[in-house]
Amino acid sequence: MYKIMYKIDLKDKKILYQLDINSRQSLTQIGKKVGLPKNVVLYRIKKLEKEGIIKNFHTVINAHKLGYTILRFYFKYQYITPRIKEEIIDYFIKSNYTTIVHTIEGRYDLAIYIFIENITEFYSFWQKTLSLYRDYFTEQVLSFYIEEDLYDFASVFFEKKTKRKVKKVFGGKKPVKVDNIDKKIIRIIGPNARISANEIAKEIGISAVTVSNRIKRLKEKGIIQWFKTNIDFAKLGYRWYKVDIVLRNHKKIKQIINYISENPKFVCLDKTIGYVDLELEFLFKNINELHQTMEDLSKKFPDTIRNYNFVYVVETHKYRYLPSN
Q1: CA quadruple 286, 291, 293, 296: dihedral positive or negative?
Q2: What's the CA gap between 270 and 80, in Å, rounded?
Q3: φ, ψ (nearest 5 deg) of residue 203
């Protein structure tokens, strides 16, 4: 899908960076860090939103801590028509189980993320899914999503090698009990990280002080993990690539991760069970950068990588922060 590329200046990049490491910061806090008065910060943020560079501000919620198991499916189509493709995508969009639905290109055509509490109940849904659409999938690949290491975008925004913050999201040993008020706060703040405590309080019918205290406790429990910004990097000239690697020598995996983490375009390490050995995510300007990175990796670690493939997101049809059931 073609998107217009926008040029932004250094101040805009600094604002985007601050919003991504903590999108719940006040305009005054951001202004002090980027060297602008808060009214100018607000103007620039509104402009970035209008241009579609900022899509929304969201809260990273640890679904594992709430008792969910995260599944990811990749599908490769066969015998597909535009009508059938639209029907399949619409089916997954409407499902209460799905949180993310992407049309992708590369090794596979469709990616869906599913949050489940009861595997037996989900089995019935999946049998229905296969009875409807199995003939249109030449491949279906399932993996269990365990954890992500997310890197900040400092080196991408400022195009220089710099020490970046890394945050682990998802994961956790045991689920944490939350009450109905906590659940309401999570569902409100999930798709709107900058919503005020006063606004949340008014919607739920409790005091703003109670809201602030509960958000603080949800952070301490590891349920609320990060207040981020959803940035449309395609409008800044980047494409988000995911590279999936099968290793010939698995003993080298930590060395590879340590090495690739120095790459300024590397933004995420996905930790999964049941797919490939190593899942790396990058922000590249073009596919040549991807191939150059993999060639460099192969030279650095000869006889270690068996093969690799990649995908990139063409269109996001659904993006929720928790399932709707």
Answers
A1: negative
A2: 30
A3: -70, -35
Lookup: tokens for 17? 């960076």
Count of residues in the chain:
325
Is the pLDDT assigned to residue 170 strictly greater than 90? Answer: no
- Give pTM, 2 decimals: 0.89
Neighbours of 13 (CB within 10 A): 18
φ, ψ at 268 (rounded to 5°): -160, 140
> Which domain, by its residues, includes 213?
177-221
Q: Is residue 30 part of a domain?
A: no
CB burial of 183-195 (b: ≥16 within 10 Å; e: otherwise) equals: ebbbebbbbbbbb
Shared domain check, 193 and 140: no
**Whether 183 and 216 share a structural domain:** yes
Closest CA to 301 of 264, 262, 248: 248
Q: How far apart are CA 279 and CA 148, in angstroms?
A: 10
Considering the domain architecture, whether residues 309 and 160 belong to the same structural domain is answered as yes
Q: What would the DSSP string read from start to end of 116-149?
A: ES-HHHHHHHHHHHHHHHGGGEEEEEEEEEEEEE
Q: Is residue 33 part of a domain?
A: no
3-state secondary structure of 78: coil
Per-residue pLDDT reduced to its tens digit, 64-107: 999 999 999 999 999 999 999 999 999 999 999 999 999 999 99
Please tell me the number of Cα atoms within 13 Å of 269 on its side-chain side: 18
42-67, pLDDT tens digit by residue? Answer: 999 999 999 999 999 999 999 999 99
Q: How far apart are CA 152 and CA 159, in angstroms?
A: 13
The answer to whether residue 70 sits within a structural domain is: yes
List the Cα angle 37/38/41 in 5-degree steps.
Answer: 95
How many structural domains comprise the chain? 3
Q: Please indicate, yes or no, if residue 129 is contained in any of the structural domains.
A: yes
Torsion of CA 187, 189, 192, 196, to 10 degrees: 140
Distance CA 33, CA 110 (A): 40
